[in-house]
Specification:
This protein is of the alpha+beta class. The chain has helices at about 1-5, 25-30, 30-45, 70-85, and strands at about 15-20, 50-55, 60-65, 90-99. Helices cover about 40% and strands about 30% of the residues. It is globular.
């Protein structure tokens, strides 16, 4: 049953921001951005995760983190967005969602 499967699952707070960029592929492939995403992921290893994903329908990247606390997740997302901005690809941060 689902109740048994759920016992081994830990739910983490999640923060998601949609970021408008000038070029999704160039941003995702930017070495400096990749390094920051990797660093954020390692910092949360075993306690959460990060994700930088291209939208299939908009010029947007989905920047997401799950962590032990909302504050940690927010910090990881903001760090990744800062890397996108420093790389010169950021146009606008559209939305913020917490789950």
């Amino acid at each position: 049953p689902l109740s048994v499967l759920r016992q081994g699952m830990t739910r983490y707070p999640q923060v998601l921001k949609n970021v408008v960029v000038d070029d999704k592929d160039a941003t995702v492939n930017e070495e400096s951005v990749q390094k920051v995403v990797e660093s954020c992921g390692k910092a949360l290893e075993g306690r959460g995760r990060v994700l930088l994903r291209k939208s299939g329908t908009e010029p947007v990247l989905r920047v997401m983190s799950e962590a032990d606390t909302v504050e940690e997740a927010e910090k990881a997302v903001n760090t990744m967005i800062a890397a996108i901005e420093n790389a010169g690809h950021l146009i606008e941060v559209k939305k913020s969602a917490r789950h």
